[in-house]
Amino acid sequence: MKEFELINRYFTGRGVTRRDVDVGIGDDCALVNVPDNCQLAITTDTLVEGVHFFADIPPRALGHRALAVNLSDLAAMGAEPTWVSLGLTLPKIDPEWLEEFTEGMHEIAEYFNVQIIGGDTTQGPLTITICAKGTVPKGKALTRSGANVGDWIYVTGNLGDAALAIESRKNNWPLSESDAASALKKFHYPSPRVAAGQALRGIASSAIDISDGLLADLSHILRRSDVTAQIHADKVPMSDALRHSIPQDQALKLALAYGDDYELLYTVSQDNKLIMESKLHQYGVEPICIGQIQPGNDDIELLYDNQPWLLPESGFEHFS
């Protein structure tokens, strides 16, 4: 099988077909129609074998994960996902692997009504680059720069499970079979908070998705908003699998500083708290308040039981 046979077999005519796509796979460029009074949100992520996923990851999980982490960026902006371009570098063509990989990608694309409209395939070390696009009403996008002193800091779900999956494998931690399976599922199949992001438009003052660790990603909001924060580590939500598997200090470090969670981290004013909670409850999301925005630009103040607590290592950063 050669490049164009691969494209025709696994992508052309498969998956979602949106009415706002005039030209999709098969031309030099795709042609799409952006709705009136909307802005186009664009994000790009690259996943590299051995850096972002283990070599033995099931291909269906890899297809899901590759698209999910991009949709999470759109969710953090309050955007509706619409179109995706895929750059796929493969060491060789393995039809069975490709069938599973593309099936995993098509499944999550169908769930969020996203059409794969083009891309590129080439030979080399396994690398997946996705450019995801979405639309958001003009002037309504969530950004990192709107946090204000007094705003409350929230997350949309448990943190640290993906970290548990990675570190338990690297360090041979003796997890129970159910805890290991639960943690690995969170790493392989992240669930981008797309509906929650759209619900937060006009309510949250700032937002970001948690990919590099809660503290590292919160720091992006604080720098862009010229404020600092007080975080209650004992309020950070963690799963039973994480709490039961390793000592509490270690679990908190994974939840606070590791990343790969793809929950939303956002700020909201006192006036908007009740409407925010009501809106997210409609989507089955239980928002958890973990701290508050403070004046200044010093380091994040981390508390446990209202007492100062040592700051764990920062989140993941390439080339650090």
From TrEMBL:
Residues 149-297 form the PurM-like C-terminal domain. GO terms for biological process: thiamine biosynthetic process; thiamine diphosphate biosynthetic process. The keyword Transferase applies. ATP binds at residues 119-120, 144, 211. Its EC number is 2.7.4.16. Pathway: Cofactor biosynthesis; thiamine diphosphate biosynthesis; thiamine diphosphate from thiamine phosphate: step 1/1. Residues 26-136 form the PurM-like N-terminal domain. Mg(2+) 4 binds at residues 28, 43, 73. Mg(2+) 2 binds at residues 45, 73. Substrate binds at residues 52, 260, 316. It catalyses: thiamine phosphate + ATP = thiamine diphosphate + ADP. Mg(2+) 5 binds at residue 212. Signal peptide: none annotated. GO terms for molecular function: ATP binding; magnesium ion binding; thiamine-phosphate kinase activity. Keywords: ATP-binding, Kinase, Magnesium, Metal-binding, Nucleotide-binding, Thiamine biosynthesis, Transferase. Mg(2+) 1 binds at residues 44-45, 120. Mg(2+) 3 binds at residues 28, 73, 209. HAMAP family: TMP_kinase. Catalyzes the ATP-dependent phosphorylation of thiamine-monophosphate (TMP) to form thiamine-pyrophosphate (TPP), the active form of vitamin B1. Belongs to the thiamine-monophosphate kinase family. Reaction mechanism of ThiL seems to utilize a direct, inline transfer of the gamma-phosphate of ATP to TMP rather than a phosphorylated enzyme intermediate. This is Thiamine-monophosphate kinase. It comes from Pseudoalteromonas citrea.
